[in-house]
Amino acid sequence: MANMVVGVCSMKIFIYEANSLKSKRQVTKSIIERIKSRFNVSIAEVGDMDKWQVSEIAFCCVSNSRKHIDSTINNVIKFIENDGRVDITECNTEIS
To answer: What's the pLDDT tens digit per position in 29-60?
Structure first.
């Protein structure tokens, strides 16, 4: 049986331009959809649903290579860091 590696990353992001829950959801949904189209990960908003400038998102990926998991997680984090609309305030990664 092949060796399976799972990587999970959860993060809190601060959304600068959000002045309502509606504008927060627009930014969060935009980021999530762009990540889905560029990276082979499962991603969703998982917390802080009622706060209008903070969002918690999480993503995960599965591979047979820890190196591939590390690379994918780092690329997604860099992608979010390069989005000028948000700042990552907290980030937790687990690979098993």
So the answer is: 999 999 999 999 999 999 988 898 999 999 99
> Residues 5-32, buried b or exposed e (16+ Cβ, 10 A)?
bebbbbbbbebeebeeeeebbebbeebb
User: Which tens digit of pLDDT belongs to each residue from 83-94?
Assistant: 999 999 999 999
- Domain boundaries of the chain, sorted by first residue: 5-95
Amino acid in position 9: C
State residue 15's pLDDT score: 96
Spell out where the chain has E strands. Answer: 5-15, 42-47, 54-63, 86-95
Strand partners, 8: 60, 94
As its CATH architecture, domain 5-95 has 2-Layer Sandwich (3.30)
